[in-house]
Amino acid sequence: VQLVESGGGLVQPGGSLRLSCAASGFTFSRYSMSWYRQAPGKERQLVALITSGGGVTKYPDPVNGRFTISRDNAKNTVYLQMNSLKPEDTAVYYCNTKNAWGTPYWGKGTLVTVSS
After folding, report:
1. Are 44 and 94 in contact (CB under 8 A)?
2. Whole-number Cα distances in Å, 3 to 6, 14, 56, 94, 114
3. For burial by CB atoms within 10 Å, which of 16, 86, 98, 107 has the most?
4. How confident is the model at residue 111, as a pLDDT?
């Protein structure tokens, strides 16, 4: 399993970014996918989840209404559209999936910095 994130960078408060995660080594369309983030000194936290077919998405309150997760099963790619970014969104963002036994897989992450 390989997950490769991209799209991070420096953005001003109120701005937008779209992250991408290219997946390989497994049957992408059969598995739910998630995005997590980890800020310095804090625990890794879930920010978005999408089911295998894309029909169900879930978000925690801090990002609900600002972040949108989507996927393209033909391209084996999951996206995270982030709007109205705040300084507290600054973190390393990770792509995640789990196999049938619950074993998690992680990408190396992409850094998002929200600062003026």
Report:
1. yes
2. 10, 28, 21, 9, 24
3. 107
4. 98
